[in-house]
Amino acid sequence: MIVTTKQLFEQAYGKYAIGAYNINNAEQIMGLFRGNIQSQAPFIVQISRGARTYTDKQLLEDMICAADKIFPEAIFAVHLDHGDEETCYDCIESGFYSSVMIDASSFPFEENIVITKRVVERAHAKRISVEAELGQLGGVEEDVGVDEDRVHLTDPEQAAEFIKRTGCDSLACAIGTSHGAFKFSGSQSLHFEIIEAIRDLVPGFPLVMHGSSSVPQEEVERINAAGGMLKGARGVDPKQYLPAAKRGVCKINIDTDGRLVWTRVHREYFRDHPEVFDFRPIGKVFMEEYAKFIASRNELLGSAGHLEEVRVVLSR
Ligand code: 13P
Predict the structure, then answer these.
(1) If you take atom 5 of ligand 1, which residue's CA is the nearest one?
(2) Mutate to test the pocket of ligand 1, among 81, 133, 212 (most ligand atoms within 8 A of CB)
């Protein structure tokens, strides 16, 4: 069942975070749905602009619709990740997305407000939720890289003003994370004081944490042992997910960790089975490993086990 992110956040706020997982292909979709059902968690299917053009947006949307039928128990939102204005409108008009992100964070404050407000008006007319972004994360998100000198943390006072003036439903804040597998050169520094300050200024308003992959060291070691070269890859301590959730972070974005599962499975499989040239045996291993990974993340986010409760509230 497709619901809006707003509906999910209303139930999760202050208790747990909903996992937002980026998907690109059929194997990921199967693994994603299986993992969420196994762990009985509501979730967010997150689609980037790159994912929409990897095969074809129609194919991706139809595969998600098929998964919705295969797993009738599932409760999830379909969300555009890091949309520009044009892509947001395309998703809003498509009738399929229940949530879009307008990322105008690279524009000056006033321009970000004007763009976000335009998207909010169009989305809300169709009952679609809108995530916006203020502040800039570092790292590389698909084809978009942000130089270190442009990175800046979210200003809480500005965030409160931004939320009020745009009418957005959730806000992605820069609190020291970055996209990709190389997040921290020294010790990790998440600025929970920023989340707390925004929460105090705008109590009850859902916040979003991007760049949240934990880049498990065991995964990195296995990839490197199977021929990979990911030296120095580091991520967010996953024990920080729940403390962030308790402070009002309702959505935690995880993409890179899923790519690491894919890389580890494929590198090890071809190393250990050099005679194989069929994609199905390895696809099955990946789906199973990806499902396990999703279930393990939902445990850390605190969303595991909440599916029935969410269903009961939504059916009232
Ligand atoms: P990671 O690169 O840490 O997985 O972050 C993904 C993300 O924030 C997508 O918007």
Answers:
(1) 211
(2) 212
Instruction: Give the mutation target among 137, 253, 259, 294 for probing the ligand 1 site: most ligand atoms within 8 A of CB.
Output: 253
The pair of three-digit structure tokens given for residue 21, joined into one six-digit string: 């997982």
DSSP alpha helix (H) spans, the chain:
5-12, 26-38, 49-54, 57-70, 85-94, 109-124, 156-166, 192-201, 217-225, 241-246, 256-272, 279-301, 307-314
Residue 75 near residue 314, CB atoms below 8 Å = yes
Higher pLDDT, 238 or 187: 238
Distance 282 CA to ligand 1 centre (A): 25
CA of 274 to the centre of ligand 1 (A): 32
Give the contacts of 161 (CB within 8 A, at least 6 positions apart): none
272 CA distance to ligand 1 middle (Å): 30
> Is residue 77 within 8 Å of 4, Cβ to Cβ?
yes
The pLDDT value recorded for residue 195 is 97
For residue 256, give both structure tokens: 């890179």
- Which residues' Cβ are closer than 6 Å to ligand 1? 22, 81-82, 141, 179-180, 210-213, 253-257
Q: For the packed helices 109-124 and 85-94, what is the interaxial angle rounded to 10 degrees? A: 10
Strand partners, 78: 45
81 assigned to active site: yes
Taking only the tens place, the pLDDT of each residue in 124-133 is 999 999 999 9
Distance (Å, whole) CA 155 – CA 160: 9
Phi-psi region of 97 (alpha: psi -120 to 50; beta: other; left: phi over 0): beta
Neighbours of 214 (CB within 10 A): 21
